[in-house]
Amino acid sequence: MENLSLNLKGFEKETIVFRQGKAPEMHNPKRNVYIGVIDSAQNYLAKRVNVLNQLNCVVIVNRELLSIHLITDEKNELRDEVIGSLQLSEKFKKFGINSGDYITTHQMADLIKMNRSVFENRDEAMKLVAELQNFKAKIDKEVEQKSDNRGNTTNLRAQVVTSNIPKSFKVKLPIFKGQTSEAIEVEVYIRDYDLCCTLVSPEANDIIESTRDSIIESQLEKIKEICPEIVIIEQ
Predict the structure, then answer these.
(1) Range 109-117, long-range pairs (CB < 8 A, 24+ positions)
(2) Are 182 and 211 in contact (CB under 8 A)?
(3) From residue 42, how far is each of 46, 85, 167, 226 by CA, in Å?
(4) Using 50, 70 and 90 to split pLDDT, how confident is the model at 154?
(5) pLDDT of 100 over the 60 cut
(6) According to DSSP H, which parts of the chain are helical?
(7) What was the pLDDT predicted at 29?
(8) Do 139 and 182 lie in a common domain?
(9) What pTM does this model have?
(10) 5 part of a folded domain
(11) DSSP per residue over 72-111, as a string?
């Protein structure tokens, strides 16, 4: 069908245009909710401060959830919201540090080998890989040599679980998403009954406990500098 124009009586200066084709689907507009890291709220405000009414904005802080939630216009259903949270980095979680999750020594060796870039000394990393790969074979051989043929294998394993695996080593990685990398000391814990292992770092735990509040406080200070009239509510 060709385009048609229809002039309405009394509305000579108005024109209605009919077009052939499918009209856009009807939809209700929704508010924008952005999910990001802990500095997302202050980054948003830094770029939008000139177009926002600070007195209509609210920042909600939840220290238990390690989150900062920005509501840009509390009375507007179509407002923007920004939720930033302090999360462990993917690399930190990948190593399972302090997670309590155990994996085989071969799996740990592969994990370290594929992520040796985080080690301060890569030669040390590869030495650790070799020790982990040979660990179970060494233990099984020693158990076999000491076996009393009376089924006491588990007890014997507990006695011979010693190796050249270093007591601790250093890795450099970000603990939290969006934060800089830092060097932490990590230990390998071995379970005697199945020889699976996990990584433990008391130092990383101390850093998490001591820095999360300081990181949140730092973000709130930046928000206050950008928008001094904004309301900040602690949950």
Answers:
(1) 109/133, 115/91
(2) no
(3) 6, 12, 42, 8
(4) low
(5) yes
(6) 40-48, 90-95, 105-114, 122-146, 153-160, 202-226
(7) 73
(8) yes
(9) 0.64
(10) no
(11) S-TT-TT-EEEEEE--B-HHHHHHTTTT---B-HHHHHHH
Reading the block at residue 143, the tokens are 């158990």
Nearest 10 degrees: CA dihedral of 36, 183, 61, 56? Answer: -50
Q: Is 206 a member of any domain? A: no
Question: Do both 160 and 195 map to the same domain?
Answer: yes
Q: Report which residue type is found at 97.
A: I
DSSP code per residue over 166-177: -S-EEEEE-SBT
Reported confidence tier of residue 136, pLDDT bands at 50, 70, 90 = low
- Hey, what are 54's tokens? 């600070």
The number of distinct structural domains making up the chain is: 2
> Tokens at residue 187, please?
């230990």
Q: Are 106 and 132 within 8 A, CB to CB?
A: yes
Q: What is the domain extent for residue 136?
A: 99-200
Beta partners for residue 58, in sequence order? 71, 231
Mean pLDDT, residues 53-74? 93
